[in-house]
Amino acid sequence: MICVSIANPSLEKCLRVLGKLALSPAPADAGGPLAELRLEKIKGLDEAGIRRIFAMPCRIIATCRPEGMDEEMREGILLTAINSGAAYVDIELETAPERMKKIVAAARKAGCQVIVSYHDFEHTPKPVELGKIKEKCFSLGADIAKLACLAKNKQDVEAMLGLCERKRLVVPISMGPLGREERARIVMLGSPFTYAAHEDGQATAPGQVGRERMAEMLEKLKKSGRDETDASAGTDIRLFAVAGNPILHSKSPQMHNAAYAALGMDAVYFRLLGENAREVLATARAMGLDGLNITSPFKEEMAKAADRLDGSAARLEAVNTVLFEDNKSVGHNTDPMGVAGALEKAGVEMKSQKAVVIGAGGAAKAAVLALTEAGAVVTCANRTVKKAQGMAEKFGCHFCSLEKKDIVPALKEARILVSCIGTGERIAPKEALHEKLAVLEANYSLKSALSADAREAGCRRVRALDWLLYQGMGSFEIFTGQKAPEEAMRKILEGGGGEAGEDDAAGHGRAEAKRPETRIALVGLMGSGKTSVGKVLAKRTGLALMEMDEMIEEKAGRTVREIFEQEGEDRFREMESALLLELAKKDKMVVSCGGGIVLREENIELLRKHFTVVWLFAPARTLAGRTEGDANRPLLDHPDREGKLRSILRARMPAYASACDFALDAEKKPVKKIVEMIVHEIYRAG
Questions:
Q1: In DSSP terms, which residues pair with 440 in a beta bridge?
Q2: Which of 56, 346, 508, 589 could form a disulfide with 462 if both were Cys (CB 3.0 to 4.6 A apart)?
Q3: Which residues pair with 330 in a beta bridge?
């Protein structure tokens, strides 16, 4: 549906435009032509003129912007419009609360729908802020939330498109030339209408096109196929990930997804495997992620790769949280919150207490910062004494080596020990541990000698999962702008799994069942490399390769294209689901799944339960090049193959993220390297 925006100082000209519009054809189910009247533009407008406007045979939005008139006059114009038959009334978000309530009440009484609108003619706020603005519009009584912001780059446009949803009516307008095409796309993504001028050259906002041109743009999108409209399925779902190497052990997805579920948020959090910080940052951008957590060994690298560092990240020169704002990556560090939170939860007093921190990486720096800020007297200990000395000079504390002559007396006097070593070997001598010592290890999945020694010595053991919990809560609040639901996040960690080396009898089991190493599923869009990777991976692991599309074709005696053409996509999806159910009962295989396997929730559940699922990601431009000339891709029968792939990918991203155990970038790496990373992750890192 197109809403024609009319802004002319002449009442008579406005009425003539409305008259022409009333005679124009409109979709049968649309309820007639729709127009927006910019009432503040009409000179000498009085009550009689307002009644003439809303007597016209069109549905009309009454809009009166605060330009050159006082608020009382503006309120009077809008109330008269409502009582004269306006179909909609547009009220700015900034309207005084009492006036807002009065206008909303009048609209409700008259059966007039309320549009609460927000405008930013200078830039597009970050996605988190856009979400808050949208929610505020609805909280004030909006039937429709309208947000219009100037787009300065592609990311701004994507952020605005991400506001579209099917459950509620949202009209997100990217103003300016970059958002011109997307003004049509929002209708395909669930918006009730979009705005256009009566004719080209009569725009009421930057980037607005004429009605005829908008109609052509909409028709072109409709012809692009039903997947274009289906693309809305994922556009309002936010994506986050934790990145590292290895990454399969991370419990962050369980914790963050539990938080989203507790607050009813449309968001998915998954694992991302990479080779270095710059790679995972580039992959996150290509995926359009809203935020990224960073784990070992990339925290210090990410401090150099991020566009900007905020707060403790700058002081620590280490990053564990990245938020994408205005096309910039902003690095944060919530690890100090994790350390302090874990110690406080265990009832450990930090002020004036002697503490030893072992290690010199990003986690160790965070521990030192947390302890020094809490007033502890800290000693940095490390094998390489120079690194310990550098940390001590940076944070104003003591240092020592890990040789017995140094570390034993330091620990004998200490009341707190924080170990940030990524190895299970014995670092702290057993004889140095004592019952007055509280011990916290950064690596919650590690079976270490320190854990066993601390138990034997009667030390107070501080739960490493609490470090994970409290740093995760900090990241959640940076990502979403909302208070983290601590109990929901704690429950999933405690209910599903404790720390490595602890007995299940203590009430701590694994956060999820061990992933099968002999059933691996590769998912991703067509052209992502599942077949090529699958062949090499199967050979490397000794597992059988199962190509789902080939198996379906063999069983049906027809190609995928023929099945689509003769029986439709739904029938193909049924065959696909039935085959996956069969495969889930077998073992010792690498399964190359069809690109649409994640379209059905029951398939996602089967994949999660029975397979280690690897998502091979590549951007639309790469997928278009790889599928060029492939005639057996019925969903790609479209002149703009890259655009169609981009639309399908955007729709399926949340489903791939939800299904996978980890994802990796399959765009630039050779197949051999991809297989090497997968094998290492599953067979050595898990």
A1: 418, 462
A2: 346
A3: 308, 323
pLDDT tens readout for residues 33-81 = 889 999 988 898 899 999 999 988 888 999 999 877 888 998 999 999 9
The catalytic residues are 299
Of 1, 3, 83, 73, the closest CA to residue 39 belongs to 73
Q: What angle do CA 646, 649, 654 make, to 5 degrees?
A: 145
Average pLDDT over residues 164-173: 84
Sign of the dihedral through C-alpha 583, 528, 251, 275:
positive
What is the end-to-end Cα distance of the chain in Å, rounded? 52
> Contact, 382 vs 357, CB < 8 A?
no
DSSP one-letter code for 180: T
Residues in the chain: 686
pTM, whole model, 2 decimals? 0.65
Neighbouring-strand partners of residue 170: 145
Secondary element (H or E) of residue 591: strand 589-592
For residues 221 and 184, the answer to whether their CB atoms sit within 8 Å is yes
Give the three-class secondary structure for 398. strand
Q: Which residues of 611-635 are buried (b: 16+ CB within 10 A; e: fewer)?
A: bbbbbbbbbbebbbebbeeeeebbb
The amino acid present at 632, given as its one-letter code, is N
Q: Which residues pair with 242 in a beta bridge?
A: 271, 293
Taking phi over 0 as left and psi of -120 to 50 as alpha, with beta for the rest, 637 belongs to: beta
Per-residue 3-state assignment (H helix, E strand, C coil) for 632-665: CCHHHCCCCHHHHHHHHHHHHHHHHHHHCCEEEE
User: Of 261, 294, 260, which is closest to residue 277 (Cα–Cα)?
Assistant: 294
Distance (Å, rounded) from C-alpha 67 to C-alpha 204? 14
Which pLDDT does position 205 carry in this prediction? 79
| CA–CA dist 253, 658 (Å, integer) | 10
Closest residue by Cα to residue 446 from 499, 392, 512, 510: 499
